[in-house]
Design goal:
single chain; mainly alpha; 2 helices
């Protein structure tokens, strides 16, 4: 009977050890599963972060390209404005010169008008032109 009790105790201890082993494996599997889930989430977040960084890089590149285009266009426009202002300045200089010439001629005409106001001078001048005209005709 002693042997039976010993076998029962031995079997019970083996069953308990097996149960503890199964529980230990279950808990280890649960921890491992939890770690795997965390790693999957972390990997998913890393992929999302990488995708966002790539998209931000593309947006930055697009913005830089647009800024470069705008800068080039601005430089062309500024150059055109400078050229146009130079042309306007040159034309204004020419107009100023022409205006001076017109004023000078107006002064000369005014002087001639003052000379021709005197009746004797006007008559003598008229006779001179008439003589010249007749000599050309004859």
């Amino acid at each position: 009977m002693n042997l039976n009790i010993f076998l029962i105790i031995f079997a019970t201890v083996l069953i308990l050890l097996f149960a503890f082993f199964v529980i230990f494996l279950f808990l280890s599997l649960k921890k491992t599963s939890s770690k795997i889930d965390k790693m999957k989430r972390s990997q998913s977040e890393d992929k999302a972060l990488s995708l966002m960084q790539h998209q931000i890089g593309q947006l930055t590149q697009n913005i830089n390209q647009q800024l470069q285009n705008m800068s080039t266009q601005f430089q062309k426009t500024t150059g055109n404005i400078g050229s146009t202002l130079g042309d306007v300045k040159k034309d204004l200089g020419k107009m100023e010169e022409v205006t001076r010439e017109v004023l000078e001629k107006a002064k000369n005409i005014s002087s001639l008008e003052n000379l021709l106001r005197a009746p004797k001078f006007r008559g003598g001048f008229g006779e001179l032109f008439l003589g010249d005209l007749l000599s050309q005709i004859l």
